[in-house]
Design a protein that fits this description.
The structure holds two protein chains of two kinds. Chain A contains nine helices and seven strands. By secondary structure, chain A is an alpha+beta fold. Chain B starts with 14 loop residues before the first helix and ends with a helix. Chain B is built from five helices and no strands. Classes of the chains: A alpha+beta, B mainly alpha.
Amino acid sequence: MQVNLKILRYNPEIDSKAHFETYTVEAEPTDRVLDALNEVKWTRDGTLTYRRSCAHGVCGSDAMRINGRNALACKLLIQDVGDSMTIEPLMGFRVIKDLVIDMDQFWENYKKIKPFLINDDQAPAGRERLQSQEEREVFDDTTKCIMCAACTTACPITWTNDKWVGPAAIVAAHRFIYDSRDQGQDERLNILNDRSGVWRCRTVFNCTDACPRDIKVTRAIEQVKRTMLYDNM
Amino acid sequence: MLSRGGGRARPARGGGFELYSWYFFRISGLVLIFMAIFHVVVMHVVNTVDEIDFAFVADRWNSPFWRVYDMLLLFFAMLHGVNGARVSIDDYVHRAGWRIVAYSALWLITVLFLVIGAMAIVTFDPNAFDTVTAGS
């Protein structure tokens, strides 16, 4: 089938502002949007720039706005989008070139919540720190995050407020806060108990809609809020 | 940039206020649903706008129940709205100078409206009704 891709292009060396360019390529309905993009880059215009790595929905590199919705180009099939689509970079961060955005702020926020196991106790000799299935289940949902930034860039607070920590960082914090093996709960809750932390969330649910891994992001954020509330009252 | 690198956790900065303001937001929102509906029912369904005059208000504010009710409605509605505006200013107003202007205006309006409203509710004298009608 013939597929029309209307892509928002921006080359900082030539363009003063972004503009759309349309390409028509041959693709199968069961191809992914990424395949169509590759077809454009490999056969039509090699200057088209976008991030992609594993191409199988795991690395989280190719999140972009497809017909106005954040999605992974490697996970979305053409038959689910139709033969005509508009592809734009994620919103809220500076565009470096074409579909590539500056993720620095995103990673700064991720680092801020200490995304690593904090446990000063000596690990049990010769084996891992054990955890029951029930204890693991508590934070199972947030372990699925691939840090593609689809949630954070779908959040209207991100679009206007560059201090906002963002849903992805809270999901990463959630993954450790409720981990029975972790001892950094207070530290992380302290970091998120801030006007730019969880309290900035207005439960718009864009993050939950955008997540390509179907993580219930808003629910995770609300869970963190509730923990703080219960701790303080 | 926001990150403090790999340092230890910084203490919560104004976090207590944000937590309680969020909680107040939820509670006041819930309370306002019922209070505002009851207010609308009494003022606009049971009684119509045509019937509401000075005598109606005088009669209503003769009862301590309505004075307390209206005072609560005033504070809940005003503070709930102001809290929302405060958060929106934080999101949308980025220049330091404009932030000071916006926040100052917001707090000034808040205090002014609460004081004027509270004064009206507390100092209102139902007996003044007679004086007003006698004078007309």
